């Protein structure tokens, strides 16, 4: 089966008014276009381009969700549960009778929500994962002696202090407010990725404790073709850029700030993995020149990216089952079917698909 699919971009306020339209080669809608969902998730299921029926009706429920994402402003600070936490949280909220569409609902389904982000823009910025206390103290430098910053510095002696420090910051109060103000002012005169992030967040969310939390996290700067993997418990926020996002088909989000939406601090802290780790960059497997595979262990999905010489000569992509493909920047032929630039398709063509063309072809499938 080969079927062209389409959808309407989600109009979240942080979305870019032009980036998705430019990427897909069509006219902008006139409003923000944040995410284009290509999958069977019930919140925004893809449609068949011919006939307009639902992809879910034609293909059943897919175990992954592919998105195009274009962020002109920072997204919320958030983490996602692991499978056991998701099941328990969903059942708990179901038993409490909280409607699925209630703003205070945390768990919309029983699934975990690991995510992969592949950068399409020349630069994609994100906060992702805790760094060591030593790194944060180094970035703070002489500010640790500022009486407004000292309460945070006093709480950051060892890496075991990261979780309690987040809990203190999210608790708010006069000390936290003074700290956030001091950091926001300091960012105007300090250089470096972390201080750039503080300044950006202060401009969009003045006074939010997430401004201070950002200094506990890695500021990751992806270049085009780089990828980031966000497992369960990873505290993160996308800051700006255009990318391909591949994830489990879940909407379970525990927010910790930088948003007007519901923030459940106890539940966020319950799923948080506050261990310091290296920035979670995801290296690809180079299958052949021009064909790369991004397959995070245990995530349940894979992303293949073919471009350049691979598409020019023709390439076999080992999808292993149903897949969704999108062509960007050039026309592609997939196993004898035309996929024009800016178009997406559902594929059920066997264990491998043959692709030839130009531009970039991204193919998502289950692991």
Which residue ranges are poorly predicted, with pLDDT under 50 across at least 5 consecutive positions? none
Tell me the name of the CATH homologous superfamily of the domain at 133-221.
Phosphomannose Isomerase, domain 2
CATH class identity of the domain at 133-221: Mainly Alpha
CATH topology of the domain at 133-221: Phosphomannose Isomerase, domain 2
- Just name the CATH architecture of the domain at 133-221: Orthogonal Bundle
Give the arrangement of secondary structure elements:
Elements lengths: L1 E5 L12 H6 L10 E4 L8 E2 L6 H5 L5 E7 L5 E3 L3 H13 L19 E5 L3 E8 L2 H8 L9 H5 L7 H10 L2 H13 L6 H12 L5 H4 L3 E7 L3 E4 L5 E12 L6 E4 L7 H7 L13 E4 L2 E4 L6 E7 L1 H5 L1 E3 L5 E6 L3 E3 L2 E3 L4 E4 L5 E5 L2 E7 L1
Antiparallel strand pairs: 1-3, 1-19, 2-4, 4-10, 5-11, 6-9, 6-10, 7-8, 7-10, 12-13, 13-14, 14-21, 15-20, 16-19, 16-21, 17-18, 17-20
């Amino acid at each position: 089966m080969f079927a062209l699919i389409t959808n309407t971009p989600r109009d979240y306020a942080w979305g870019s008014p032009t980036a998705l339209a430019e990427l897909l080669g069509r006219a902008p809608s006139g409003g923000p276009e944040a995410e284009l969902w290509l999958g069977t998730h019930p919140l925004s299921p893809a449609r068949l381009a011919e006939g307009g029926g639902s992809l879910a009706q034609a293909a059943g429920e897919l175990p992954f969700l592919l998105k195009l994402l274009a962020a002109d402003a920072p997204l919320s600070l958030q983490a996602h549960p692991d499978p056991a936490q998701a099941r328990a949280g969903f059942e708990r909220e179901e038993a409490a009778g909280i409607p699925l569409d209630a703003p205070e609902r945390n768990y919309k389904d029983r699934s975990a929500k690991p995510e992969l982000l592949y950068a399409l823009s020349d630069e994609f910025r994100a906060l992702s994962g805790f760094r060591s206390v030593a790194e944060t103290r180094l970035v703070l430098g002489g500010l640790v002696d500022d009486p407004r910053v000292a309460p945070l510095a006093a709480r950051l002696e060892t890496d075991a202090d990261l979780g309690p420090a987040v809990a203190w910051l999210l608790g708010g109060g006069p000390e936290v407010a003074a700290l956030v103000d001091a950091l926001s002012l300091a960012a105007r005169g300090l250089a470096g990725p972390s201080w750039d992030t503080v300044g950006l967040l202060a401009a969009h969310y003045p006074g939010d404790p997430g401004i201070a939390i950002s200094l506990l996290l890695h500021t990751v700067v992806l270049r085009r073709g780089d990828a980031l993997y966000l497992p369960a418990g990873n505290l993160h926020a996308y800051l700006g850029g255009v990318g391909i996002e591949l994830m489990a088909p879940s909407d379970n989000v525990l927010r910790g700030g930088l948003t007007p939406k519901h923030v459940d601090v106890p539940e966020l802290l319950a799923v948080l993995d506050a261990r310091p780790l290296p920035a979670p960059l995801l290296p690809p497997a180079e299958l052949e020149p021009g064909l790369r595979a991004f397959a995070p262990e245990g995530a349940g999905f894979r992303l293949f990216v073919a471009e350049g010489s691979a598409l020019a000569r023709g390439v076999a992509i080992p999808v292993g089952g149903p897949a969704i493909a999108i062509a960007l920047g050039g026309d592609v032929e997939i196993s004898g079917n035309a996929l024009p630039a800016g178009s997406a398709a559902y594929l059920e063509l066997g264990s491998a698909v043959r692709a030839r063309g130009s531009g970039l072809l991204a193919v998502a499938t289950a692991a």
